[in-house]
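> forwarded from #structure-qc
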C-alpha cells in the first residue's frame, strides 16, 4: 500500500525525519518560545496556563518561510503538492504549546465541556465552529489539510496529538447527510450540530484512537475531516521540554473552492 493509499484509509500519515523540515523547525523553535512568552500573545494562554493556543503566532510568509529562515520544504510538502495540488497561500502558523498539568478547564468552560476535554481529548474536526447563543455548529473554515511540525523533542506521553483512524469517512457521511436538501452555495451556513455529534459518537464506538508522537525533523499530515484532539500530559518530562512545553507548529490553509470541495474531494 502506498503512503497516499494509507493516508486515505487511516486519515493521517507520518513523515520520517527530513533535513529540510528539521532546518525549518530549528529556526522556528526559539521564535515559538518567544511567542509563548510574549505579553501581546497572553490572551492565547488558556487552560489555567497549561495550553498556549498560539493562533497566527509565527510571522511566516505565504510560503511558510520565517524571517531569515530556511524555506518550508521537504517530503511533507512534496507529498501535499503531489496529491493535493500546489500548496495554497499559507496563513501565519499556529503554535500549539502544551505544558505539564494539561488538561485544565478553559476560561468559561463548564463542567460538562471540561469532562469532554478530559475524557475525549476535546476531540473535534478543525474548522467546524460554534455560533449563536446556543453554541450550535457550522463549517466556517473548510481547510484543505492539516500539517503538524513538531518543534520540541518531547516525550511520547507529553500531551500527544490523538487521532481516530478512519474517522474522516464517518464524519464525511455525517456532514453530507446534514447538507442534503440544501444548495451547495449555502452549505457553510447549515447547522450541522446534530450530524456532527452523531458522527462523533459513531467514531468513538468504531474507530481506533491512536496517539501520534513525532520529533523535530519529522511531521504528520491529517485529513481535514479527521476527528482528533490532544491527550493529557501524563508524566513530568526532562528539563528542556518542561521549560518549553510540547510545541507543534500547524498549517491548515483553507480550500479556495470552499465547503463543496471540503466534503467531496478525497
Amino acid at each position: 500500500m502506498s503512503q497516499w493509499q494509507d493516508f486515505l484509509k487511516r486519515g493521517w500519515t507520518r513523515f520520517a525525519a527530513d533535513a529540510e523540515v528539521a532546518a525549518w523547525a530549528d529556526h522556528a523553535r526559539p521564535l515559538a518560545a518567544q511567542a509563548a512568552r510574549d505579553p501581546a500573545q497572553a490572551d492565547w494562554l488558556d487552560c489555567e496556563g497549561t495550553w498556549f493556543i498560539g493562533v497566527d503566532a509565527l510571522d511566516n510568509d505565504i510560503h511558510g518561510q520565517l524571517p531569515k529562515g530556511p524555506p518550508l520544504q521537504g517530503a511533507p510538502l512534496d507529498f501535499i503538492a503531489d496529491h493535493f495540488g500546489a500548496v495554497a497561500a499559507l496563513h501565519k502558523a499556529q503554535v500549539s504549546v502544551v505544558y505539564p498539568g494539561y488538561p485544565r478547564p478553559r476560561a468559561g468552560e463548564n463542567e460538562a465541556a471540561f469532562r469532554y476535554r478530559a475524557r475525549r481529548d476535546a476531540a473535534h474536526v478543525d474548522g467546524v465552529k460554534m455560533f449563536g447563543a446556543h453554541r450550535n455548529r457550522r463549517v466556517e473554515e473548510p481547510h484543505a489539510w492539516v500539517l503538524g511540525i513538531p518543534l520540541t523533542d518531547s516525550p511520547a506521553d507529553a500531551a500527544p496529538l490523538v487521532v481516530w483512524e478512519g474517522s474522516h469517512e464517518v464524519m464525511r457521511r455525517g456532514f453530507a447527510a446534514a447538507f442534503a436538501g440544501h444548495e451547495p452555495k449555502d452549505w457553510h451556513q447549515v447547522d450541522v450540530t446534530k450530524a456532527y455529534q452523531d458522527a462523533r459518537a459513531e467514531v468513538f464506538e468504531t474507530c481506533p484512537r491512536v496517539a501520534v508522537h513525532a520529533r523535530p525533523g519529522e511531521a504528520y499530515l491529517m485529513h481535514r475531516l479527521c476527528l482528533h484532539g490532544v491527550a493529557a500530559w501524563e508524566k513530568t518530562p526532562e528539563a528542556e521540554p518542561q521549560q518549553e512545553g510540547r510545541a507543534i507548529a500547524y498549517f491548515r490553509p483553507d480550500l479556495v473552492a470552499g465547503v463543496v470541495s471540503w466534503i467531496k474531494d478525497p
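QC bot note: The CA atoms of residues 22 and 217 lie 4 Å apart. The radius of gyration is 18 Å.
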